UniProtKB/TrEMBL annotation:
This is DUF1287 domain-containing protein.
Length: 215
């Protein structure tokens, strides 16, 4: 991994019209490909997969700095963000505000989240709590479904959330899509090259697999 990505990632643990047919340009292993959303999504996972395609933007600059944002429905500047912002932005296109949902659950069950132990925070912080991978892992485990970690590509469905641990210390998160490369579902994520779609499901050590459709 390039050094600048490691430095950037160390700062942070680490909207949908499905009936329209649109084409998105994305960088995939140094090749340009065309992808298209499902024209008739059958369930929430397929809707979220479509939403993930809509947030693809390779010009987004990986920016892990702490930012004060509005609440609810707050977002960092559109051309900036980290891996968690990909997930937050896609869910917002499905009318789910993870900022509000994570904040409310964390406020009510602060001791179940790693904020105090990991970052020394004694109170919830609605600017950053939902933008931290470990917090999202707890939230998705509590409010959604925690699924098995396998090497079977068929177990990863559109709209599933996957987390990885890179170099044993860098939490990362992405969204499984319905787009496949040689049968393997592709991921929309941001690891430093913008919000892109990539064949990386089994590229890093996987630590979490979740499915969350809102409360």
């Amino acid at each position: 991994m390039p050094y600048f990505l490691i430095v950037a990632l160390l700062f942070i643990s680490c909207q949908q019209k499905p009936q329209q047919t649109v084409f998105v340009r994305a960088e995939v292993q140094e090749k340009k490909i065309e992808i298209t959303p499902l024209s008739h999504p059958k369930n929430f996972g397929e809707r979220l997969s479509n939403a993930a395609l809509q947030v693809i933007d390779s010009s987004v600059v990986y920016t892990p700095a702490y930012v004060s944002i509005p609440y609810p429905m707050g977002d960092v500047p559109a051309k900036t963000g980290v891996c968690t912002d990909v997930v937050i932005r896609a869910y917002r296109k499905c009318n789910i505000d993870l900022q509000k949902e994570v904040h409310e659950d964390l406020k009510a069950h602060f001791n179940l989240y790693p904020n105090l132990k990991k970052w020394g925070l004694k109170n919830p912080d609605k600017n950053i709590d939902h933008r931290r991978v470990p917090n999202l892992e707890v939230f998705f485990s509590r409010k959604g479904k925690k699924l098995a970690l396998t090497h079977n590509r068929a177990d990863y469905l559109p709209g599933d959330i996957v987390t990885w641990m890179i170099n044993d210390k860098l939490p990362h998160i992405g969204i499984v899509t319905h787009i496949k490369k040689e049968g393997v579902p592709m991921i929309v994520h941001n690891i430093g090259g913008g919000q892109i779609i990539e064949d990386c499901l089994f590229k890093y050590p996987m630590v979490g697999h979740f499915r969350y459709e809102g409360n």
